Amino acid sequence: MLDLRWIRSNPEDFDRALARRNADPASSTILALDEKRRAAQTAFQEVQSRRKELSKAIGQAKGKGEDAAGLMAEVEGLKDKVSASEADEKAAADEIDALLAGFPNILADDVPDGADESANVELRRHGEPRTFEFEPQDHVAIGEALGGMDFERASKLSGSRFVVMQGEVARLHRALAQFMLDLHTSEFGYLETNPPVLVRDAALFGTGQLPKFAEDSFQTTDGFWLTATSEITMTNLVAGEILGEGDLPKRFTAHTQCFRSEAGSAGRDTRGMIRQHQFEKVELVSITMPDASTDEHERMTACAEEVLKRLDLPYRVMVLASGDTGFGARKTYDIEVWLPGQEAYRETSSCSNMGDFQARRMNARYRPFEGKGTAFVHTLNGSGLAVGRTLIAVLENYQQVDGSVIVPEVLRPYMGGKEKIGAV
After folding, report:
1. In CATH, what number is assigned to the domain containing residue 87?
2. Candidates 86, 347, 367, 412; catalytic one
3. pTM of the predicted protein model
4. In the Cβ-directed half-sphere of 327, how many Cα atoms lie within 13 Å?
5. Ranges in the chain, pLDDT < 70
6. Which end of the chain has fewer beta carbons closer than 10 Å to its terminal beta carbon, N or C?
7. What is the pLDDT at residue 294?
8. Is 260 assigned a catalytic role?
């Protein structure tokens, strides 16, 4: 959520920031409502002040034995004005809050301008795509040949965009998640967390999924939401809290099931595991001081990259253009791994600096060592990594001509020492 005081002082900058998001200017609308709210607030204060004056006068009149009926009648008449001005202020404040909740975050100055993903800018690459002496298969063909992926039975159980994994493929998937967690906790200082996957409205509002993106999530009949990422739960761990400066940074990681309705993605990535309703991620979340979030963003991205480096998978890092950056992010790096089956780089992690956007929605603050008062923290999140998409990359990049798949060296301790998995 944006700072109304900043909009009030910088209306032209606000409209320019919206234009970078391909959104219409809105400063005149929000400032008109703000003026209406402040006028109602002034009216309320004036009426309240008059009531106090009258109450004092009534007490004085009675003390002198004078008739106070007229004064009491005026007080009675002010009740409706108090209620009306209070209602006007609340209505304007609610409308302002609703508008503010729908505005995207202000982009960092160095985010490249562009309408969509075609304007994203490549920052760096690591590793070279493997040259195959045979026609490489995609993960669906590999997984089915290994007896480890069953999309047909999953469809009978749940419909499209689901898979049943079994045997060594399921074990490899589990090994990837364990390896990621061990790396992030033992080497990078993230605190392993096991959060709920069912949350209430306030949690999704705090991280920006509500109200704008309700259709992207699944909701139960009793009002819980299934989380699309553990960013939601781990970031909300500090909701409503005042942290000490010495408590920061806080770094959390979790491996959870994730659920997305994939609204608006009809016809996209319908084959295989690229875009599913149920999937798993190892997520990274950081809570930092405002002046530390830019460096933390680079650090988090490097932590996510290290997973692919240890797996010896080729990848590239992209900085997202203004039109492709998510609603709550100031700046986002996408890490895209090479998939031979698609002959394309595909996202396996997005690492975003959210600034104080989520903290304002959650009222998450810190108290500095020096000075008075509190300030909003900055929050960051990133996949470290998406487990299913990383599994796809391992299967496709390590496939052999006989249909077997080499197990990356760092995963072998999690696979009972196995160096290769073969067809059943």
Report:
1. 1.10.287.40
2. 347
3. 0.92
4. 15
5. 75, 264-267, 424
6. C
7. 98
8. yes
